[in-house]
User: Fold these one by one.
Assistant:
Number 1:
Amino acid sequence: MPDLFAHAVIGYCLGTALSFRYDWLTPTYVTVVMAGAFVPDVAKIFLLVPDAVVSDALGLPFSWFALHTVGGSAVAVLIGVVLVAGEERRRVLGLLSLGTASHLVADALLLTATGYSKPMWWPVAHVGLPSPGLYLSSEPTPLFVASAVAVVLWALRRRRAKAE
């Protein structure tokens, strides 16, 4: 997968691009899109707390990988939505979902040895779907491309703000 910073930059690009169309989408809301791009990687908590530790504590089978699926990410997004003020929930739901979707799509484009992505589309699909294999997880290309687009969008946004 692209690194976490690349996911954040992709979220920034999406949020900033949408801010040209929607005046209410301020930099604060762009940050919400970026936060949504982090949601699937919460599964990396397994590095600190292994699956077996949680499984033993709960007495049930457990895997952190569920957070890196559509279903697990949807639950995490809904938890995030509940934490904001009622009048902000609709916007936050859409923006967190956009960031999360961008993360999952970027990960689905990886080049894998099998030619299939991880089974991250649960509950839509229970197996990994064919991956177009655009880049390796270790390649910096997604970050470079997203960063170049982000710089252009930042400059356009700044220019637009000065004109107003």
Number 2:
Amino acid sequence: MAVETKTITDVIKERTSVKTGYIDKEISQELVLSLLDDAVWAPTHGLREPWRFIFVAGDRKEAFIEAVLQCHDKARHEAVRSKFADVPAFLVVVMNEDPRQKVREEDFAATSCMLQNFQLLAWEQDLGVVWKTPNHIYDPKFRESLGVQAGEKIVGVLNIGYFDKEIVAKKVRKRTNPAEKMSAF
């Protein structure tokens, strides 16, 4: 029996953000670390590797959700809670925020490349990921709850989990032909 091998092109084109449809299966810190071990091979100017990670799963999920809820009006708590309750794991990605614009932008680009690597590697392992940048990542209460310091930026929160492939298969994916966006100088 032949094993199907996917090309990097296949993985890039198939990967999609998985926002719903997670199944109740644990995501271990070891699994996430193994993905990060490869993801950090992203381009990074001067090998600064400006990132760090906060992993949330299992019995720490409720405290994480409470940290999110403190940034929202009580009237919205149930709606907000429902967005997080079914997500098996979260990975908060934090980067150093250098005061020099050039370095800060290089570090953000490097962190973004690393995050895309992570998403592709996760997809290859049948894990769904969505990279979220909700308003609460800028809230001092949320940042303090997670131990994010001055001079650090939360680049995003990754929702991670195994998922119902039938739900994702129904998503319509389309991209604009790059020729429509290219000019010559």
